[in-house]
Amino acid sequence: MKVLVIAQLTFREGLRKKLVWGVLLLSLLFVVLYIWGFHLFVQDWREMEARRAARGVPPGTYEIFASAMVLLGLWTVNFLSGVMTIFASVGTIASEIDAGTLQAIVPKPIRRWEIVLGKYLGFAGMLALYIVAMVAAVVLTARFVGDYMPPNVVQGTLLIVLVMLILLSLTVFGSTFLSTVTNGVVVFMLYGLAITGGLVEQIGTALDNDVLIRIGVISSIVVPSDSMWRLASYLLQPRLAVNFLGPNPFGTTTPPSAFAVQYAVAYAFALLLAAILVFRKRDL
């Protein structure tokens, strides 16, 4: 099938980009530092518990703080995958139109929708593998270094993949009618808007401020990427940790509903469909 051939070529092309290798190297550095940091945390915790025991103080709840370490690591994975998604696929259509590559491809017996879908699947496959590998690194560090296993790892990973698909759909859609630079700036600003809106919503929840909560909800409608991360963070923490930490920059005490997940899936699909329709009428 032509779509799968284009997806395979896109996958290989993505791996050849210097930016992708740069992010991979930074991700490797993050993993090394994360393992070291988790080791230091466990070491300090044991020393603190020994001092508490010597004073006759009851032991603390290790699960809460280990969960916070995992949450911080997975938030970083979610952020890095978002940045990698935007800048790996930012010129997926626009740059090839500018270079004249598509002028040689489109006249052949390849439909335009096959080009868009193939490129989308190629990047989605590459980025999904990256997310799974990074989540595995964080979870395995927690398991073998910290002797802690977060709950609902599979569901949380799938939601982080959904965040990536939302941003990928948005980027591919923008690439069909915006220049590469403009598309990168617009999508990255929208990504930042979603993160800021999520933070504003958490502040509103902590202060019981309906206006701030409403601002966060509106931002999650415009770009639902951060709301999916909030749900992932809620599922990846034990309830004890959620109640102890409360609303915070990395998590939430009021997770999005099942309808929010359905909306996010429909959002990604609708933008991909819009990209196909716009590209069909795009002048090459």
In short:
It is built from twelve helices and no strands. It is globular.
How is this structure best described in words?
It is built from 12 helices and no strands. It has helices at 2-16, 18-54, 62-89, 94-99, 101-105, 112-144, 153-175, 180-207, 210-222, 225-235, 239-245, 258-280. The two termini are 24 Å apart. The chain is mostly helical and 284 residues long. The protein has one domain. The chain is globular.
Shape: globular
Task: Tell me the structural class.
Answer: mainly alpha
End-to-end separation in angstroms reads 24 Å
* Computed CA radius of gyration, to the nearest angstrom: 21 Å
The average pLDDT is 88
Helix content bin:
over 70%
Main sheet? Answer: none
Number of E-type strands = 0
The number of domains: 1
Low-confidence stretches: none
Q: What is the helix/strand order?
A: HHHHHHHHHHHH
* Count, helices: 12
Beta strand %: under 5%
